[in-house]
Automatic annotation (TrEMBL), chain A:
InterPro entries linked: BPD_transp_1_N, MetI-like, MetI-like_sf
Localization per Swiss-Prot or TrEMBL: Cell membrane
Similarity comment: Belongs to the binding-protein-dependent transport system permease family.
One Gene Ontology cellular component annotation held by this UniProt entry: plasma membrane
Topology in membrane: Multi-pass membrane protein
Keyword line: Cell membrane, Membrane, Transmembrane, Transmembrane helix, Transport
Main subcellular location of this protein, as a coarse class: membrane
Domain of life: Bacteria
Residue ranges that the Swiss-Prot or TrEMBL entry lists as coiled coil: none
Protein name: ABC transporter permease
Lineage: Bacteria, Bacillati, Actinomycetota, Actinomycetes, Kitasatosporales
Source organism per UniProt: Streptomyces aurantiacus
Residues in ABC transmembrane type-1 domain copies: 95-300
Amino acid sequence: MLSFIVRRVLAAVGTLVLSSVLVFLAVQALPGDVATQVLGKDATPDAVAALREKLKLDQPAWERYADWIGGALHGDFGASLVSGKAVGGEVGMYLGNSALIALVTVLFAVTGSIVLGILAGLYRDRWPDHLISTVSLVGMSVPEFVVATVLVLCFSVALPWFPAVVLYGPEATVGQLMPAVWLPALALAVVMAAYIVRMARTSVIDVMASEYVTTARLKGLSTWRVVTRHALPSALLPTLHVIALNVAWLAGGVAVVENVFNYPGIGKLMLASVQNRDLPVIQAIALISAVVYVVCNLAADLGAMALNPKLRTRGRTR
Amino acid sequence: MTTLDTPAATPAVPAAPRSAAARAWRTVRSSRAASIGLAIVAVHVLIALLAPVLTSYDPIANNADQALLGPSAQHWAGTDQYGRDVLARVLYGGRYALGVSVAATLVTLLIGTVVGCAAALRGGWFDDVLGRVLDAVLSIPSVLALLVVVTALGTGPSVIVLAIAIVYVPQVVRVVRGAALAVVPADYVTAARARGESTWAILRREILPNITDVVCVEFAMRASWVVLLISSLSFLGFGADPPTPDWGLMVAENRTAITVVPMASLAPIIALATLVVGLNLAADGLSKAWGVDRIREGS
């Protein structure tokens, strides 16, 4: 049991080291000279030389990698090539704003999809199931920017309840951002929930057909008790994993949705830094996303182990 | 697949594809979801091919006098801010979406299948190292990876195909590896190994025919994701270049005028959604009919 946890944590650390190398290689080994890439083809030789100096391009790649990762471990990701500010602080500020969206999204998506998934599973092949399955199919089939656009049309234009765009910068307080969080979070939650609903439905159907549920029914337990005691935990288990897998997707979805609403989060920073070729910022965002993804997956694995006794005794499966 | 055509494999070729195709056709006809889905996709392909016949308007011709018109007899879906016919742009828009998506999905599936099968067949350190590398790639957000590749190499269709392959190959490898692992212990694979057949030959003749169903379902499902990703990329301004008629780009262009000409945004949205619904239905129907458990395959 303990050795399994240790092995999982070690594997996670290994994955992280590898992804940091990949991130560094991908960004630094872009075709052509990095300095010219950043400054554009019309840059003066002096400016290119100065930037080469600043980025320490004359040192071998592995030394620059060691510098970068050593700094990153202490929270120092270098300075932004555009604003000149420390990358760590800047990314942290945007990340905090995005965390607000992510939190509300996961909350919406999980509660909504578990309830709908259990309903669909209980009413298998009857009209509630067909309705929920059809809606989730449509939810899966429209990109985030479409959901976001439709939501703006409904709840900002037709019914002016929520702001269509955010007018604050990244320094906005939680109170200022709060009214603007709901629509982006809802847009992301709709797309995310569409995947989780199907997962929850399948596991509920499996459980309801199991012998212990039949026994529980024969004992005369109410449907409500059967659902809360058996269907709910079994629907939660695979959901945990889907959420962890969705974290990587969430970072991308956030980029699109934040741009629709002009929300000052990590997605907007990501797009801006790619457009400006602000390499330190791109590297920092990629590394932080990788950390979040790996930690979430680790948490999901360990959480699944805590919820499912069968997994505790199982050895390495792959 | 030409690389797999070793002389030793040729005798098996004529029989295998025909029976597989017949089997696939029977499955499609037996599953209502799959037939509806494939029919929707077929209609989209037909529309994209026949766009010049279906409309007489040029999808990229500006006409300032006719800007921002509502639906009328001349312009069934109205016009956008440059006076371009929305219906014509929607009909032509499928060409970019379908062309790039199909190419990207094919490349992704091809690489993913070969690597996934090789990992299952070889096992050992190759499999372990590969698993770690794939985990690392998966941990980087796909949109960010796409954006970095596209900014570095430009926004041509071939670059987008390459970028999509980088992003989605790891997931395909995992699914295919999972499916192939179930075949590898089979006696006929052991027999083929004992006969001293090459890895390629075993792959081609023993493994691939047994995981065709998984690969087909994977293709339909992956294609729907690729369509969504490419349209998102266009929406963000990193995909199709204006004035190319593309659905994601159209929504981005017309979103600000959504209160004036809602059809200019809604028409491409409907086109995009129906195509992806079709692909999803096909993937669902096929996986149900073939008994491919997508959840257990590890996607």
